[in-house]
Amino acid sequence: MNWLDEVKWDANGLVPVIAQEQGTNDVLMFAWMNREALEKTAELGRAVYFSRSRSKLWFKGEESGHVQTVHEIRLDCDNDVVLLKVTQLGHEPGIACHTGRHSCFFSKYEKGQWTVVEPVLKDPESIYK
């Protein structure tokens, strides 16, 4: 059996993926992969996702330069969620979010509202052309 056959793909042929920073264990982002994206990620050692809005493979950092080097690929106990242990490249500290922040999880629930708790490290207008 092919290792990709063990993944429980959803009805659209996708699996949710969490990118976690190696070392800090910060959760950087959530995305989706199809079979081809997961296979390329394993082959290249670089995060490749599937963009649902563009219906195509998305090589993380292809526009921004904020590439993710993949150190480990893990599958959860139900075989339906992938965890990538990554090093976020292209900026110090690493920027994983299209808003120019380290992590996509920059809003924290506090006292009945969402509060932004992480700064913009680089203006997104200067990242994306």
Automatic annotation (TrEMBL):
Primary localization: cytoplasm
What cofactors does this protein use? Mg(2+); Zn(2+)
The molecular function GO annotations come to:
magnesium ion binding; phosphoribosyl-AMP cyclohydrolase activity; phosphoribosyl-ATP diphosphatase activity; zinc ion binding
Cofactor, how bound (note): Binds 1 Mg(2+) ion per subunit.
Q: Which domain of life is it from?
A: Bacteria
Q: Where does Zn(2+) bind?
A: 77, 97, 104
What is the enzyme's class at the highest EC level?
Answer: hydrolase
One GO BP annotation is: L-histidine biosynthetic process
Key words, A-Z: Amino-acid biosynthesis, Cytoplasm, Histidine biosynthesis, Hydrolase, Magnesium, Metal-binding, Zinc
Name the pathway it acts in: Amino-acid biosynthesis; L-histidine biosynthesis; L-histidine from 5-phospho-alpha-D-ribose 1-diphosphate: step 2/9; Amino-acid biosynthesis; L-histidine biosynthesis; L-histidine from 5-phospho-alpha-D-ribose 1-diphosphate: step 3/9
Q: Which InterPro entries would you find in this protein's record?
A: PRA-CH (IPR026660), PRib_AMP_CycHydrolase_dom (IPR002496), PRib_AMP_CycHydrolase_sf (IPR038019)
Q: Which reaction does it catalyse?
A: 1-(5-phospho-beta-D-ribosyl)-5'-AMP + H2O = 1-(5-phospho-beta-D-ribosyl)-5-[(5-phospho-beta-D-ribosylamino)methylideneamino]imidazole-4-carboxamide; 1-(5-phospho-beta-D-ribosyl)-ATP + H2O = 1-(5-phospho-beta-D-ribosyl)-5'-AMP + diphosphate + H(+)
Where Mg(2+) binds, per the record, is at 76, 78, 80
This protein's GO cellular component annotations are:
cytoplasm
Q: What is its EC number?
A: 3.5.4.19
Q: Where is the Phosphoribosyl-AMP cyclohydrolase domain?
A: 29-106
| Protein location | Cytoplasm
Q: How does it assemble?
A: Homodimer.
The entry's family comment says: Belongs to the PRA-CH family.
Entry function: Catalyzes the hydrolysis of the adenine ring of phosphoribosyl-AMP.
Put simply, this protein is called Phosphoribosyl-AMP cyclohydrolase
**Gene name for this UniProt entry:** hisI
